[in-house]
Specification:
Largest sheet: 5 strands, mixed
Distance between the termini: 106 Å
Bound molecules: zinc ion
Structural class: alpha+beta
Radius of gyration: 30 Å
Strand content: 25-35%
Length: 180
């Protein structure tokens, strides 16, 4: 029962049969497409992931092979509102059911609520992790609240006050008081 599993060449059925777990910490730079979303920034940022195998109905003729995937990363991007850097948190927490082949996956895809993948004895879990994280990348990254409000007007209240015309009557009053 203590089989060793490789995240890049995963025997999916055996992983599910053993109800095995895998986890690790990769770097954003390990995922070329993900790193490209951050425009080369943050290659050293961690990508934490874990996978849990599960066999449903193991006594059934065709038991279901499941892998529950979790992954977290924080990607440095540029806010499209204020153009300052923004950390975008990406979170994946999704179960996948593995079926016999691509045709079965395509045929059952419409009816299944879960995501279907073709079973493999050398499945690349890290590629799936990258695919899923990429799907979480926002089309328009931005701060929930931008740190510095965008300047909407050049109006400066101090400038207006200083340039206001002097009130001639106020000046007259000063002169009178000075005399009294
Ligand atoms: Zn912003």
């Amino acid at each position: 029962m203590n089989r060793q599993f490789s995240p890049t060449r995963l025997d999916v059925r055996a992983f599910a049969e053993d109800a095995a777990q895998l986890s690790g910490t990769a770097r954003v730079g390990d995922f070329k497409r993900l790193a490209a979303e951050a425009a080369g920034q943050g290659n050293d940022r961690p990508v934490q992931w874990s996978a849990q195998g599960e066999m449903l109905n193991p006594r059934h003729v065709q038991p279901q092979v499941w892998v529950h995937l979790r992954a977290d990363a924080v990607l440095p991007m540029t806010c499209q509102r204020c153009l300052e850097p923004v950390d975008v948190a990406l979170q994946v927490d999704r179960p996948f059911r593995f079926v016999a082949d691509e045709e079965t996956a395509a045929a059952e895809d419409d009816e299944a609520e879960e995501d279907l993948l073709a079973i493999s004895r050398a499945f690349d879990l890290l590629q799936l992790i990258e695919d899923e994280l990429l799907m979480e990348v926002p089309v328009v990254p931005r701060h929930e609240v931008c740190p510095a409000p965008v300047q909407l007007s050049a109006a400066d209240p101090d400038f207006e006050e200083a340039s206001a015309p002097e009130n001639p009557f106020a000046r007259l009053k000063d002169l009178r008081n000075g005399r009294g």
